[in-house]
Amino acid sequence: MNCLLCHSIVFSFKDIAYQCQNCRLLFKNPNRHLSVEEDLKRYSAHQNNSEDLGYIVFLNRLIDPLKNFLPVSFTAIDFGCGPGPTIAKLLSPLGGEVVNYDPLFFSDESLLRQTFDVVTSTEVVEHFKKPMHDWQTLVQLVKPGGLLGIMTQFFTTEINYENWWYKNDPTHIVFYEQKTFEYIANYFSLDKIYDDQKSIVIFRKRK
Fold first, then answer.
1. Which of 63, 54, 123, 107 is nearest to 89 (CA)?
2. What is the tens place of the pLDDT at every residue in 30-72?
3. Which among 10, 23, 68, 95 counts the fewest CB atoms within 10 Å?
4. Which 3 state secondary structure label does DSSP give 184?
5. Cα separations (Å) of 79 from 17, 89, 96, 112, 124?
6. Does residue 69 sit in helix, strand or coil?
7. What is the distance in angstroms between the CA of the first residue and the CA of the last residue of the chain?
């Protein structure tokens, strides 16, 4: 099997997943992915919404460092906002004109033909079934010089995959090491400008 991101050779990892020897993408066996209908059922059960203070605190793990790079006014899209969009509520007071996109809940495809100063994607990239295609879609939304803020739990060699809580969600199917983000940055002409080494990475798209 070839890597779903860089198309290099992969090796079996704990029998139920594969890891790329080149970009270090770790991904579950595509034959075991849930259907779109099963995904929708699980996502619809999420209780996250803009009135949930705990969820707002969680999202601020991305918003707080992102604030340091925001222009005075900007356009933004929250890619993969889910059934309870909240990022827009956090970015609007900071000068953002924010729209929401989600392929299942806010599926205005015309938004994907636009570009924005800021693109956020929180707890989304681990759901990508076609990582190369999906990252291309994501990066194309960013204007040259614009910002791309990502939240997902990073995988490291210190983690015991079999005991890792993050992989237990069946919709979490793709995981990223630091080297994976380096590959993504190089391939898509991005500069990594913030990295907490845990779950937050912010890129700026080269002009």
1. 63
2. 988 888 888 888 877 776 777 788 999 999 999 999 999 999 9
3. 68
4. helix
5. 26, 14, 15, 10, 8
6. helix
7. 35
Domain extents in the chain: 33-205
DSSP state of 59: H
Q: Do the beta carbons of residue 159 and residue 176 sit within 8 Å?
A: no
97 C-beta neighbours (distance < 10 Å), count: 15
The CATH superfamily of 33-205 is Vaccinia Virus protein VP39 (3.40.50.150)
Q: Any idea which residue has 């990239």 for tokens?
A: 125
Q: How, if at all, do strands 74-79 and 174-175 pair?
A: unpaired
For tokens 């209780």, name the residue.
Answer: 47
Ranges of H-type helices in the chain: 36-44, 53-66, 87-91, 131-140, 178-187
- Please state, in angstroms and as integers, the Cα–Cα distance from residue 164 to each residue in 18, 37, 140, 145, 193, following that order: 15, 26, 32, 36, 28
What predicted TM-score, i.e. pTM, was given to this entire model?
0.95
Collapse the DSSP code of 126 into the 3-class scheme (helix H, G, I; strand E, B; otherwise coil) and give the result: helix
